[in-house]
Structures are given as structure tokens and as C-alpha cells.
Amino acid sequence: MQPDLSATDPSGSGFSVPASGNRPRKRLNPTLGKARNMIRDALDAAGLPPRGTASTPPPLLLVACSGGPDSLALAEAASFFARRGDYRVGAVVVDHVLQPGSAEVAASAAEKLRGMGLDPVQVRTVSVPATGMGPEAAARTVRYAALDAAVEETGADAVLLGHTLDDQAEQVLLGLARGSGTRSLAGMRAVRGKYLRPLLGLRRSETEEICESEGLDPWFDPSNSDPAFARSRVRAEVLPFLEEKLGPGIAEALFRSSRILANDADYLDAVSAETFDRLRVPQAAETDAQKPDPDTILLPEAPLRKLAPAIRQRVLALAAVELGGAQPSYERLRSVEALLRRVGSAGPVELVGKVSVYRQVRTNPVPQGGSGYGNLVFRKKSST
Q1: pTM of the predicted model as reported, rounded to 2 decimal places
Q2: Orientation angle between helical segments 250-279 and 239-246, nearest 10 degrees
Q3: Region of 367 on the Ramachandran plot (φ > 0 left; ψ -120 to 50 alpha; else beta)
Q4: Are 282 and 201 in contact (CB under 8 A)?
């Protein structure tokens, strides 16, 4: 059984391990120990065992840090594993240049991270483009591009993100407001490739407690309280209102729902991917061409009709995404499904990403099509 890091340090003294010789020993804050346990569990689940060998250094973890309480608390908890020699731990601070003084905020965060013993610590400055996706989405896109570049440059094995239970609850509420499906209501994934969110079970107030106990001075992003952003309104107004009217524990209940829905979504996605691979028909099977057309996917309608709607809609979405289209909306997927109720050739239905879908009548069923009478054809339009 692994030791409970919320109770003691590896020496069994009951005191936290100092970052340097000048840092006084003190009784370990239980919430900091709880965060360490969460990080260790996340790394175990991701298959990242600690320590290296004589010829292999320990895995390198990068903490994505804004200087706010969540990511500073994450960095402080992760630094424990670097001091113990289990992992190398560095950090990346992304300066979005969206507010006056952002460079100073980034530099201050980097200094705090180096003071924890993290190495390497990078500050990456990005430019957030003015696009039609909205400022939050645009900032997220360039932020992950910067983190991806840091992973490529350093050879990092994982990136730790400081999202908390409160962030997850807000994400679920925003998904409900948009009328989203299971995957969206499942919220943020705990693991997405090299990106890990070990603190999803920790409250935001607990990260602030860690910062206070460790003498850290976090930066509070003013955009988090700006009512111009929907997430800020959910944080400052909607969740407190629900707590007032429905009683405490709303954030925890939303988080619990996200965990349940994540399991459901993972299962449905896996079944849908297997079904898509089984049903798809290479274009050469229809045209007798020498090579399959990479811009066309055919799905035989007879087996599509037999699928449960939850699987069928995911299979249709997979075809669109494989051709480079965006994830179709529920309304667009319903329009594609409606082609299965038509007689004769029908369509096209246009999807975001220059993908069109139409029903094609055929006379000779392909093997996957059984006794059906047609295919749904997904075709990527030429950019010219």
C-alpha cells in the first residue's frame, strides 16, 4: 500500500519536505497532502511510474501555471515529487498579453516556480488572434499550442493542468445551457493524451488554502470576475444562486454527474468507433476504382437504420470528422439521419468543414450493406 501523503512526508516525521535548506520545516497542511495524493494517483493512472534507471532519468512533468491559486497550488504539490527524486518537474507560464502588466505577472509566476525548485521554467508569450470563435476559445487554442511546443522542445512526459472541481461544475452548467450531449456534459477529461488534470476533485477554496499555508502570493485574474464572460457569470452569480435556493453541495453534485457521464460517454464512443470501422465502405468497392477516394466515405443505410440512435449519431459524426469536418451539431446530425427516411437519391446536407452528405441509391449491395438499397455518402469538398 502506498503511503498517504496527506498525513506525513516520506521520512515519517509528519513534516513537509523543504524546497531548500533555507525553508523551515513545518507541519504538513492536510490539503496540500491531499493534492499530492491526487497527483500521484493521476500519474499512476496515466502509466507514468516514478524514478528512472541508471541510464534513464525520471519522467519530466510540466506544470501549466498562470500564477493563479489553482496552478500555484498544483506546482507546490508537484514540487514534492521533484524534491523526492521521483520525477523531474518543470513549468510553463503562458503570457497571453491580454491585460496591462501581463509580462510582469508571468515573470513573477516564473520566479515563484523557480523558488519551488522547478526546472525548467519557461515563459511563452503568445498572440491571441481576433477570430470568430470568441476570445476565450481563441486564447485556449494558442495556449495549448504553446504548451504543445514546450512538450516538443523539452521531451516532457506529461503536462499537469490546475483545473478544479469548481471549474468542472462550471463546465457542466455551461454545457447544460447550450443543450449539449453526453460528452460535453461529462466536462473536462481527467486525461487527454499527455495532459492530466489531477486536481479535478479539489475545491477552488482548497487551492487558496494551500497557497496561504505555503506563503504563496497568487495572482487573481480579473477576467474571472468580468461579467462579459459567460463562465464568469456562472462562477459569480449562477452557482451561488443555486446554492442559495437548492442548498449546499451543488458544485459537488455537478462534478459527480460529470464523472458518471464520462463513463457513459467513454463506452458509447468506444462502441461507436468500432461500429464505424465495421460499417464504412471504401469508395473503390462502389466504383471499382484502382484506389479508394480519400475524400469520400460511404456508410450503408440498412445497418445504419438498425443502430440505436445514440450509436448511429456518433457514427455519422465520426464520418464527418474523419474527413476533416467539425463535430456536427445535434440539429445537423438529425438532418443527416433524415436522409435515411427518404426514397431515392436525396441531399446534400452541408456540414461545417466543407463536408456534404447525401443518399445514393445503389442496385448491388456491398457486403457490409446486407439487403439495403443505398448508402449515405460523406464527401469532402475541394478547396479550389
Answers
A1: 0.84
A2: 120
A3: alpha
A4: no
* Helical H segments across 179-282, by residue range: 182-185, 204-213, 230-233, 239-246, 250-279
Q: At what angle do helices 165-178 and 250-279 cross, to 10 degrees?
A: 60
- From CA 46, how far away is CA 158, in angstroms rounded? 9
Edge-to-edge strand ranges of the sheet holding 374-380: 296-300, 374-380, 355-361, 346-351
In this predicted model, what pLDDT tens digit does every residue of 311-333 receive, in sequence order?
999 999 999 999 999 999 999 99
What backbone phi and psi angles, to 5 degrees, belong to 293? -85, 115
**Single-letter code of the amino acid located at 219:** W
Chain centroid to CA 6: 27
pLDDT at position 330, please?
A: 93
3-class DSSP assignment, residue 343: coil
Backbone angles phi, psi at 373, to 5 degrees: -120, 0
| SS3 state at 90 | strand
Share of the chain above pLDDT 70, in %: 85
Tell how far CA 114 is from the center of its chain: 27
Does residue 183 contact residue 259 with C-beta atoms inside 8 Å?
no
Work out whether the CA dihedral 188, 191, 197, 201 comes out positive or negative.
Answer: positive
Q: What is the CA radius of gyration of the chain?
A: 25
Region of 37 (left: φ > 0; alpha: ψ -120 to 50; beta: rest) is: alpha
Cell of 38: 491526487
Question: Could you give the CA distance from residue 266 to residue 313 in angstroms, rounded to a whole number?
Answer: 15
CA atoms within 13 A on the CB side of 112: 27
